[in-house]
Amino acid sequence: xxxxxxxxxxxxxxxxxxxxxxxxxxxxxxxxxxxxxxxxxxxxxxxxxxxxxxxxxxxxxxxxxxxxxxxxxxxxxxxxxxxxxxxxxxxxxxxxxxxxxxxxxxxxxxxxxxxxxxxxxxxxxxxxxxxxxxxxxxxxxxxxxxxxxxxxxxxxxxxxxxxxxxxxxxxxxxxxxxxxxxxxxxxxxxxxxxxxxxxxxxxxxxxxxxxxxxxxxxxxxxxxxxxxxxxxxxxxxxxxxxxxxxxxxxxxxxxxxxxxxxxxxxxxxxxxxxxxxxxxxxxxxxxxxxxxxxxxxxxxxxxxxxxxxxxxxxxxxxxxxxxxxxxxxxxxxxxxxxxxxxxxxxxxxxxxxxxxxxxxxxxxxxxxxxxxxxxxxxxxxxxxxxxxxxxxxxxxxxxxxxxxxxxxxxxxxxxxxxxxxxxxxxxxxxxxxxxxxxxxxxxxxxxxxxxxxxxxxxxxxxxxxxxxxxxxxxx
Length: 475
Known about the structure:
Blueprint: H1 3-26, H2 29-35, H3 38-58, H4 62-71, H5 77-98, H6 112-134, H7 138-162, H8 166-189, H9 202-212, H10 215-236, H11 239-249, H12 253-272, H13 277-304, H14 306-313, H15 325-348, H16 351-376, H17 378-399, H18 410-429, H19 437-452, H20 454-474
Helix pairs in contact: 1-7, 1-12, 3-6, 3-8, 3-10, 3-11, 4-5, 4-6, 4-9, 5-6, 5-9, 6-7, 6-8, 7-8, 10-11, 10-16, 10-17, 12-15, 13-15, 13-18, 13-19, 15-16, 15-17, 15-18, 16-17, 18-19
């Protein structure tokens, strides 16, 4: 199987395991916004995002270390799993010692124990699932993703409309789903057989931590860029405004879901096929072009349809949230592009570059949020998020050529950026009405994005149809 077929195959499996799961949870937004007030949803969102910040810190980033080391076949896979679990244990103990500090944050009063459970269970689940994926059990990885989603949905239906558990029910459904899925993986794959006490080696732990540790502050900085605005909106505006803003962010998250799936499949392929420098450069060039096409066209489509999406997914009390979606969609497109460029650092083992560029985005985001939220409210936070991701994109684009000199298509990216920004401005000023000058401008901008990328769109459609025909013939 060549590298392109392997990438497509991995992406298909990751899609089954993650994207379909994320879509199902995404469609639960109507349930969430019906069962939770804007203030409750804002609190639940802050709890979840705080837990997601603490997850890589508590596990010392070891999930990525296990995945990369195992996928690269640097040594016997059981060695990395055993040493990774040891590092996870040390990190978890440190997290438990420091966790009482969370009680000083007023938003988390009464919920600290939930955050602790969320972090610990999520880390164990991530380590087990990533290890199995890197070992080649991609079908099992896909299956456990669907199982996790089914459990989350069922628990949500029980805890929210039936038992009316509010914020606690929202968070606890995720924790229990992760726990039950982990139990399934351990039992089904007999993971205890991969634990070998004799394989514990300080040298292996140091090597894994050398790769992982720079990823921790990198993840923290990305979290600051993408999530800190919600805390600042809550503090500088109101919890209700944060609830609307958090809900609005769920629409662009569709693109983030797609990126996270491709990113997992892409890293697996890029690491496995990293020996031939010339072939690798051509591989990155071709995938980058298709990736940017999907990012800009997909982002433009989300912007154009943001009002219908909001009407479908949000309860009546959240109707004002749609106005933040166009700008957040543009920000999300650049989140996707930054993620791909970060994979260059990941593949080359230069994670310190990810750290530096992520710091730039985080610092800029905090400054702009403090300046703009008091003036424009949540819209100021949306614009600050876009600017931060765009600056990181420019910096990463300028630095990755030293590592893998693939074709960057800068003119094409520049034109796409201008067009999608114009589209976002037009949609924001339509006021949700599908008529008038701004709506006409939005239609023209969307058409321009599609036409500018039409050759690649047709190539992608042709490729998908060709794959579908091959699959039908095999069956």
